[in-house]
Amino acid sequence: MLDRLRAIVGAGNVLAGADAASHSRDWTGSYTWSPLAVVRPGTTQEVAAVMRLAHEARVPVVPVGGNTGLVGGTKAPGQLMLSLERLNRIRALKPEARVVVAEAGVVLARLHDAAADHGLLLPLWFGARGSAMLGGALSTNAGGSNVLRYGSTRGLCLGLEVVLPDGRVLNLMQELHKDNSGYALKDLFIGAEGTLGLITAATMKLVPAPRAHATATLAAPSLAAALTLLNRLQEVTGGLVEAYEFMPGGYMDRLAQLRPDLGQPFAERHEVTILVELGATAPRDAEPRPDGAIPVVDLLEETLAAMMDEGAVLDAVVARTEAQRAAMWARREAAAELALTRGPLVDTDVCVPLDRVQDFLHRMPLRLAALDAGATDLTVAHLGDGNLHYTVFPSTATPELLDAIRSAIEDVVAELDGSFSAEHGIGLSKLASMRRRKDPLVLEMMQAVKSAFDPLNLMNPGKVLPQNPEETRP
Amino acid sequence: MLDRLRAIVGAGNVLAGADAASHSRDWTGSYTWSPLAVVRPGTTQEVAAVMRLAHEARVPVVPVGGNTGLVGGTKAPGQLMLSLERLNRIRALKPEARVVVAEAGVVLARLHDAAADHGLLLPLWFGARGSAMLGGALSTNAGGSNVLRYGSTRGLCLGLEVVLPDGRVLNLMQELHKDNSGYALKDLFIGAEGTLGLITAATMKLVPAPRAHATATLAAPSLAAALTLLNRLQEVTGGLVEAYEFMPGGYMDRLAQLRPDLGQPFAERHEVTILVELGATAPRDAEPRPDGAIPVVDLLEETLAAMMDEGAVLDAVVARTEAQRAAMWARREAAAELALTRGPLVDTDVCVPLDRVQDFLHRMPLRLAALDAGATDLTVAHLGDGNLHYTVFPSTATPELLDAIRSAIEDVVAELDGSFSAEHGIGLSKLASMRRRKDPLVLEMMQAVKSAFDPLNLMNPGKVLPQNPEETRP
């Protein structure tokens, strides 16, 4: 097998044994494994040849990009890992048509830079953008702060190139804004975490890059007030809100403890701290006035001032320099570090309807206290999407307690008509939730799709769809 | 069978024989048939019971809503038609969360009215909105003028309720903005034209209704100039363009001939006439100034004036009253009447990349002249999406010529990396195009999906996916 792989991609691009050590754990450290080998094809044709070979030999294939996932989606014990890192060409960037055609192994930050050269933005933006790759972002339908304004990764993708489990290349590449010729196959592969086929390239929409930002950190008396403010800002600006990030009091406390270097926005402690950012492209919003003032910044400041008069904002600071803006974002982007650097923990990524975020935060502490009086929690949220990253640190680490906590969170999410997985995906870590919470008929139809595309169950087997109880263990 | 249907929905809601006559042809008159019966369930449970019965009896089911489709998607010879007309409740409208939950049989115009009561808009807008129903719009992923700003029907839908071919109810209803728990089943049913299951209800996004419109008709020296103007308008307004509709000289000629009552925008004849509309929600754009001027109208006027100075606009008239705006839209919305009231014809609905629309219009007359020197054509386009409705009136109506013309159009579309079906769907009328033009591997995977959801081929059989040559005949 290894020899045949070497014949396809060259000896230097088949890593086994100690050479594959860097591909034997995930970013969080929760999952470790020993792959059969890591193969690094450099072209779609090489990917196809590798897949044909694996298909003939009935060897399971696990795709990997930047390996920044949070749900164990790249665990590959004894399986063949197919790394997309060498499939990293930007095939075309068309500024007039506002599209970029890129391969799966292109790091997001490189796409951001390439688009910025033309005054454009790929609005797929999250903490790991410096190492996450396009293919992984598509395979997980990755979210982030900008979904609020620009929609999901699925919505940003116009075309896909996919290698099927048997090595055939499915060409769904196009740059059309409308196409109703048959079923939405493209949307199936996006978010399938490599279980239906392997994404090798995509055509992505670009948007005009904001020419001015207005960024502020503010304190609100309640979440309800914060949501009123969001609606007001959208109304006043005509939908320019690019990010609306919620950091509760407990988050700010932990930040003060673990990252005192990042500072605190306010002298007083507040229960509801919000990072808001507007992005303006139009000259009437973005071009400095004769006195140097930026209209969109004034608009934000005026709206916050009016809301303070109404009591809906308690305090606010507007960024006046790029450094101030960066400092505000650093406090938000420390979230992964704050949450994941202390184990054991139960980390979740849930979504509830916008008007029920408060309910979630009211109900959880009561449930948690009943299970484990010593537990603490940490929340940070993309409030504009109803998407909460809620992490629990239990006082002991028995599998039973961890599972009971996860189940209690799922209970509350289900009561509020939410989803137990908003933007990180399922991988291995949420298989138990899929089994417990997903409608059995929905699971049955998903399994029917899986069988239609991958009848031999060779593509990232055991991920996304629950099969047996054992596979959920890290 | 009929008795058992009557037992489910009541005798008055099973139409057969002469009573079913109104359900025996499509809107265009191109397709006629005699259905086994028409059944009109009033609840999802009744739909499910009908589907279970049909499944047991192996009777094919064809769903029908407003029957405004253009591709023969409701033809049901000897088959059971399931009309959604009585499944017409608006289950909930939540202005704060900006969503509406409605059943498949709700007419779009009713949803528009209900949303308008709260200052909101369901941006799913096309000529047939007065009779088209939500279920049909979803099943065909219907397009329209507003896709440019607000995206596709698929993108506007947050949740779906579907009855599967065997009568089980698949609950994909939710109002979440992020959900990554498994495959995108919802997106599969949208645009599947009832071949995978039957949509009974949906949760749709609403957007703030524009509080001011700026509408103009303009003449441009070329399509390239028109596209430059579109980009300029998007830049200057920060993306407020709601519609950008192209009417060539030949379209305006035909309008003058057949609908002289609608008038002409300019004394001179122009090759490129554009209807543009901006929609503004923000007070800084929409609120009248002390002198009564509306800022967004001024912005449009100033931009058009600047472009006239540059020679990129030849003439323009800005609507000053709602009546003037309505008159401009009436000229555009006469398109279906202008195209379809004279047979025989080949009507198409194609999409090409934005920068290749001009290529399409250059190449087609040459190909057409070679096939039929006496043929004439008619074009109207959603230019901002690259979506052209291109209709040919051949001098004779032999099936061979009609087919050769359709094939020539497909040739040009394929040369330009376009799609032969942008927004109307496949139904029966584009099955031959699917067979000829769609990548066989893509067709194979679509068939695999069909078999996974509808193994007995009972749901709107023979539509969307080509099976044998006979079925493409009207």
What would you note in describing this structure?
- Two copies of one chain form a homodimer.
- The first copy, chain A, is 35% helix and 20% strand.
- Chain A is built from 17 helices and 19 strands.
- In chain A, strands 12, 13, 14, 15, 16, 17, 18 and 19 form an eight-stranded antiparallel β-sheet that branches. A five-stranded antiparallel β-sheet of chain A has the order 5-6-10-8-9. A four-stranded mixed β-sheet of chain A has the order 1-2-4-3.
- Chains A, B: It comes from Gemmobacter megaterium.
- Chains A, B: This is FAD/FMN-containing dehydrogenase.
List the helices and strands and how they pair.
The structure is a homodimer of 474-residue chains.
Chain A: H1 2-9, E1 14-15, E2 37-39, H2 44-57, E3 61-64, E4 80-83, E5 90-94, E6 99-103, H3 108-116, E7 120-121, H4 134-139, H5 147-150, H6 153-156, E8 157-163, E9 169-172, H7 185-189, E10 198-205, E11 207-208, E12 212-220, H8 223-237, E13 241-248, H9 249-258, E14 272-280, H10 283-286, H11 295-309, E15 315-318, H12 322-333, H13 335-340, E16 346-347, E17 350-351, H14 357-371, E18 376-382, E19 387-393, H15 399-415, H16 431-437, H17 440-453
Helix pairs in contact in A: 1-2, 8-11, 14-15
